[in-house]
């Protein structure tokens, strides 16, 4: 799309013709939808790691992907928080540990691993100071340094060793406009490349962060350099989702602040042009009024505790309630999707707000496909999907007592 370098990708496009009949039939349901004959499901197939408390149990999973042929599973496992220790691992699907690369040499100076992406001939691991490439069996292949960026984080490495970075919001006092400036609700996706020994960045897209921060003033509300208050994340955020499609060398933005059930998807090249856009209309899911009320009460309690009011009178409680309502984003409907995951299969997996008992409803489509109906796949709601091949979905399950298990589930067609 010529001329879409910064803002053109937000243009609205023609409505998607419709989803499967069973989805349309489910649209009036406020929270749940129904299983129908067109739904895909999944069955247990592979497991890596033992149950918590047993030898061979895995701890927290920081990153995960699979090779394009499905023969290797790549992990970043957090084995300690204090001090922070993470390790990269390569496994076979049947649970055989192949390698733990990246613990020595130049890679050891890059810091602890923070992310990964699959390459045609192996995989890249992202560190604070650089990237390291390994073969599918964990053999070191090459390294690339990363730039230091002010208020932005590198998220993806491109084939030419340029990078995508995502801008971070400024501190809450600035983001919310408490210091006198206008509130900040957007940041940018940057394309970062090295030229003549210097890193240069170019903004290529805008990312919306509206309804991300919750802030309550506890001072008199006047503009001052150090306004007082407390902050936390909004309980029901609907900011844009951002993903990096390593296979295509694009960055994806999923816009969720449209109408109930509406999703806008855009994939953008490093030059800023949008190469894929799609508008979906999924079954709207009503936000339960009790969840909004619980959020109000939670903030009211924090306000009263901050004010030191142990036995508040009706005026104090009413004032606190109004402050809570003013600060909270209280939607009538849930965001249409909660997660966007590009897979090595060439598909985009979207976790929707719909549930069927203990199953989450996912919608799956090929990158670049704009007319075909998405597949509708039902997966356990505890399953944290991180990648997928044409035959299996891969992710993990975290347990309340600590620890995780990697699981490969075989996809079952209708």
What attributes does this structure have?
disordered N terminus; 4 helices; 414 residues; 10% helix; 4-stranded antiparallel β-sheet
Uncertain spans:
1-21, 23-32
What is the distance, rounded to the nearest whole angstrom, between the alpha carbons of the first and last residues?
37 Å
Strand order of the largest sheet: 1-26-25-24
Helix share bin: 10-25%
What does this structure look like?
The protein is mainly β and 414 residues long. The chain is built from four helices and 26 strands. Residues 1-21 and 23-32 have low confidence and may be disordered.
Give the helices and strands, then pairings.
Blueprint: H1 21-26, E1 41-48, E2 60-66, E3 73-81, E4 84-91, E5 97-99, E6 115-119, E7 122-127, E8 130-134, E9 140-145, E10 152-157, E11 163-167, H2 172-175, E12 186-195, E13 198-208, E14 213-217, E15 229-233, E16 241-245, E17 250-255, E18 262-268, E19 274-281, H3 289-306, H4 314-327, E20 337-342, E21 347-356, E22 359-366, E23 375-380, E24 384-388, E25 392-398, E26 404-412
Antiparallel strand pairs: 1-26, 2-3, 3-4, 4-5, 6-7, 7-8, 8-9, 10-11, 11-12, 12-13, 14-15, 16-17, 17-18, 18-19, 20-21, 21-22, 22-23, 24-25, 25-26
Helix pairs in contact: 3-4
Q: What's the quick description here?
A:
This protein is mainly β and 414 residues long.
């Amino acid at each position: 799309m010529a001329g879409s370098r910064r803002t053109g990708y937000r243009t609205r496009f023609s409505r998607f013709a419709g989803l499967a009949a069973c989805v349309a039939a489910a649209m009036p349901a406020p929270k749940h939808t129904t299983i129908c004959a067109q739904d895909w499901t999944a069955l247990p197939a592979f497991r890596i790691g033992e149950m918590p408390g047993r030898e061979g149990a895995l701890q927290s999973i920081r990153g995960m992907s699979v090779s394009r042929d499905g023969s290797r599973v790549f992990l970043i496992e957090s084995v300690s928080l204090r001090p922070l220790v993470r390790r990269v691992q390569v496994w076979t699907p049947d649970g055989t540990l192949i390698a733990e690369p990246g613990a020595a040499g130049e890679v050891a100076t890059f810091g602890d691993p923070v992310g990964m992406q699959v390459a045609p001939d192996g995989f890249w691991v992202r560190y604070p100071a650089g990237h390291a490439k390994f073969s599918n069996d964990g053999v070191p292949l090459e390294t690339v340094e990363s730039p230091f960026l002010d208020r932005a984080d590198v998220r993806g490495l491109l084939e030419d060793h340029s990078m995508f970075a995502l801008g971070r919001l400024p501190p809450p006092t600035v983001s919310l406009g408490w210091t006198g400036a206008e509130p900040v609700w957007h940041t940018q996706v940057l394309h970062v490349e090295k030229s003549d020994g210097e890193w240069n960045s170019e903004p290529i897209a805008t990312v919306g962060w509206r309804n991300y921060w919750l802030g309550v003033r506890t001072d008199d509300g006047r503009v001052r350099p150090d306004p007082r208050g407390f902050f936390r994340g909004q309980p029901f955020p609907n900011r844009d989702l951002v993903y990096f499609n390593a296979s295509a060398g694009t960055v994806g933005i999923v816009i969720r602040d449209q109408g109930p059930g509406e999703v806008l998807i855009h994939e953008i090249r490093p030059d800023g042009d949008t190469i894929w856009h799609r508008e979906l209309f999924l079954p709207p899911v009503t936000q339960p009024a009790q969840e909004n009320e619980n959020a109000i009460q939670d903030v009211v309690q924090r306000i009263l505790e901050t004010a030191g009011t142990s036995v508040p009178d009706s005026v104090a409680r009413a004032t606190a309630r109004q402050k809570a309502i003013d600060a909270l984003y209280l939607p009538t409907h849930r965001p249409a999707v909660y997660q966007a995951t590009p897979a090595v299969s060439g598909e985009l997996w979207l976790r929707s707000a719909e549930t069927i008992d203990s199953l989450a409803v996912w919608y799956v489509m090929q990158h670049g496909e704009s007319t075909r109906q998405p597949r509708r796949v039902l997966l356990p709601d505890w399953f944290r999907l991180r990648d997928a091949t044409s035959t299996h979905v891969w992710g993990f399950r975290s347990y309340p007592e600590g620890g995780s298990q990697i699981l490969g589930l075989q996809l079952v067609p209708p």
